[in-house]
């Protein structure tokens, strides 16, 4: 999840208390990516940085770079590690990262997970928000920003699964079918929906829409699409698709269908 301007309010509703803790860092380490295009200072209040953070970092950074590129100028951020939330707060939030991590400005606050798949996912998710904010300061639509972050998280977790010889399981959110939005509703959102199940469905649908657009356009054209939407006075999300890539009403209807769970074997 991202925290900037009007989006911060929704975040506080679901995850209040993560940010704002007094920094009393006891250990730090520095990480780089792409020859110093991204430099990171990792801090923790514990006596040492968990080695898993260091091994998951390149997976997350590579996944983000593959999807959205790098900041155009060398840029630095801080990753603050926190203690995991209580068991009660974990219930029902398996892949929804809203209580586990947040990015604000040049800081990512994240709970130091011991599961490399989840840690890679959340690192990549938040790093993706940060890189998107660097590249497109005018801000992408909410569904696209979160959809990209989810895709980056998924790619990093897939790599972590291969490295650690595990299987990545991402079950559909609970009560998904009762909380689905239409394509028009999803793309009109400027704040996160209220309610845990609605938020979970939003993430699922944002990822599905972003992923299908990415597949339809291909990586190179998709990057052009992001550039078009990231301008200070962007067109509607549909306009470039119609004008430049000749999407028809049928194409948008097809996208709308992709926002529903597909039969067994289908991809979200
Ligand atoms: Zn996010």
Write the layout of secondary structure elements.
Blueprint: H1 7-15, E1 27-33, E2 38-44, H2 51-68, E3 75-82, H3 87-90, E4 101-104, E5 107-111, H4 116-135, H5 142-163, H6 183-188, H7 196-229, H8 239-243, H9 249-258
Parallel strand pairs: 2-3, 3-5
Antiparallel strand pairs: 1-2, 4-5
Helix pairs in contact: 2-4, 2-5, 4-5, 5-7
The structure holds zinc ion (ZN).
Overview of this protein structure:
This protein is α/β, with parallel strands linked by helices. It has a single domain (7-258), classed as Neutral Protease, domain 2 (Orthogonal Bundle), CATH 1.10.390. It has 9 helices and 5 strands, in the order H-E-E-H-E-H-E-E-H-H-H-H-H-H. It has helices spanning 7-15, 51-68, 87-90, 116-135, 142-163, 183-188, 196-229, 239-243, 249-258; strands spanning 27-33, 38-44, 75-82, 101-104, 107-111. Strands 1-2-3-5-4 form a 5-stranded mixed sheet, covered by helices on one side. Strand 2 (38-44), helix 2 and strand 3 form a beta-alpha-beta unit. Helix 2 (51-68) packs across helix 4, helix 4 packs antiparallel against helix 5 (142-163) and helix 5 packs across helix 7. The longest helix is centred in the C-terminal third of the chain and has 34 residues, at 196-229. The protein is globular and about 55 Å long. The two termini are 19 Å apart. Mean pLDDT is 86; it is low at 4-22.
């Amino acid at each position: 999840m991202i925290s900037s301007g009007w989006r911060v309010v929704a975040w506080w509703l679901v995850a209040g208390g993560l940010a704002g803790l007094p920094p009393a860092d006891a250990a730090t380490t520095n990480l780089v990516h792409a020859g110093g295009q991204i430099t990171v200072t990792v801090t923790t209040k514990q006596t040492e940085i968990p080695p898993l953070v260091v091994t998951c970092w390149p997976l997350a950074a590579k996944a983000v770079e593959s999807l959205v590129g790098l900041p155009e100028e060398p840029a630095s951020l801080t990753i603050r590690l926190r203690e995991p939330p209580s068991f009660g707060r974990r219930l029902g939030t398996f892949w929804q990262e809203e209580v586990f991590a947040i990015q604000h400005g040049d800081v990512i606050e994240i709970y130091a997970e011991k599961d490399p798949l989840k840690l890679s996912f959340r690192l990549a998710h938040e790093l993706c928000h940060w890189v998107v904010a660097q590249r497109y300061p005018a801000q992408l639509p909410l569904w696209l920003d979160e959809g990209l972050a989810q895709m980056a998280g998924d790619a990093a977790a897939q790599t972590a699964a291969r490295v650690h010889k595990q299987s990545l399981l991402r079950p559909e959110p609970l009560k998904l079918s009762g909380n689905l939005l239409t394509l028009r509703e999803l793309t009109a959102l400027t704040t996160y929906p209220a309610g845990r199940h609605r938020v979970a469905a939003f993430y699922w649908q944002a990822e599905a829409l972003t992923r299908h657009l990415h597949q339809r356009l291909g990586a190179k054209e998709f990057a052009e699409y992001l550039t078009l939407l990231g301008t200070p006075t962007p067109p509607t999300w549909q306009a470039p698709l119609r004008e430049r890539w000749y999407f028809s009403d049928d194409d948008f209807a097809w996208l709308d269908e992709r926002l529903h769970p597909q039969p067994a074997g289908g991809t979200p």
